[in-house]
Design goal:
single chain; elongated; eight-stranded antiparallel beta barrel; 178 residues; mainly beta
Length: 178
Amino acid sequence: MATTKWIIDPTHSEIQFKVKHLMITTVTGYFSKFNLEVETEDEDFTKATHIVFTADVNSISTNNEQRDTHLRSADFFDAETHGELRFVGQNFDKRNDNEAKLNGELTIRGVTKPVTVNVEYGGIVVDPYGQTKAGFTVDGKISRKEFGLVWDAVTEAGSVVVSDEIRLHCEIQLVKQA
């Protein structure tokens, strides 16, 4: 079996998160600078031997500069000290031909915890430029407080300002390397 290397196509990929604000609406954010490297046996992603995703915390955006500055501060990500978040995939638990659970370790703010995400495989195609590409949708949930993002506030009426649960949604397109 040959080892196949894949890298993310950042122009066709999105890394998003969603969090409840005041427990009545959802705020969406994303990272604009990220990287993903994968090594597989041939083109079988369920037998990946190397899965490493990183995101530049300073590239966080929620379309509100004041909020983004607060997220980069020591109250949340502490980007000055912990400028990168990292996920290292360990193994797949295949559910069917197109769905699997990916188990790995996520590190945020220097805290590493096991995380399992749902992966939907979109398939492999050759684009008009001759590049072989693979597509995936990744969804999951984490507790921000487990990673040291513990800032909290409560409104006068007793509502939590920011929920603990963070929903993750990623659209990933990988490019096969020669």
